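Backbone shape codes
____________________
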Amino acid sequence: MPYAWTDATDAALNPTATLRATPHRPLGPRGFVGFVAATVLLLAIPIVESLGTPVLWVMLLFCGTAVAGLWIALSRSLRDRQVSEVLVLTPGLIRLTRTDGRGRVQDWQTNPHWVRVTLYPTGQAVEDYLTLAGGGREVELGAFLTPGERRALASDVRDRLARLKPGP
């Protein structure tokens, strides 16, 4: 799962649950370099064949453009995958902090007693759209997760919120 819960107890003996969610990252920095290197090696085969001919310069131009485009696209993909969400649940406060690939931080907090977890199965931009509502706002949670992961996360968040609320 691309998310994990951490349970702890703070100094006032309040239970705290922290969720850290990040998108899948199948291609890391080493894979990025390896893929670009393999592409360069494969593109070098026709270039070697055209050494000493006027076609060489045209091939170098097109192959260089292809490698530069690949580099830019993969770099952007890696940067966009730096998204993270941290949800902290305590008896008195629920806080969601989202950091995007450019380092911008969005923060939402409210009293957990009033939080509503909603999973919209259809009619939204994505299947099983997961939101938290409370404090006059509704925020999205786990936009980068698959529909099945969002369903499981909704269940987890509901269970943990139920444990925070005092019993009858």
About this structure: The chain has a mean pLDDT of 86. The longest strand covers residues 3-9. Residues 93 and 111 are 5 Å apart (CA to CA).
